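User:
Hi there, any thoughts?
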Amino acid sequence: MGSNIPLGLIIAAENTEVMPDRDEETGRYTGQYSIEDFLNAISNANGMAGTGEIADQVGCAHDTAYKRLQRMEEKGIVSSKKVGNTLLWAETDGNE
């Protein structure tokens, strides 16, 4: 092992490179997810999917998906339906 860099530092450096872009000042993630990303996730689930399933497909946090889907619903892009404890999302007829 010809390197003088401690193993812990190598792992930290590798994890930093893999992480999404962050704002230097706030530390917040700056990644953007398109409307198409969310609509594709719904489409891939046969036209209706829960928030968690959509978040997994898009690759974002559950809270991020929920807030984005709410904004999309306000604009008439998607609709939601409460089924038990799950909120299911579907693309509205005008966007298919």
